Please model this.
Amino acid sequence: MVGRIIGIIISIGLIIGGLSGKLVLRGTNSSTLLVVAGFLFLAYDVYMIYKDKKQNDEDNTEEQDAEGQDTNTPSDIQ
Model:
């Protein structure tokens, strides 16, 4: 998770640097391509955080369901 947040910070830095014109994509001398690459990296990191969060929520729900199952329900006890 920390790696994804660092990736988001770097992506934002690429976007800001490209928009300011002070940074360019190596080999192309294009700040526009750097901004596009920054947005692509940003979208990827946000997607991966969403995917990880969704997976963790599903895992927690399954664990709660397994813990909540009681073998002796009131209808079984007589």
Observations:
- The radius of gyration is 23 Å.
- The chain has two helices and no strands.
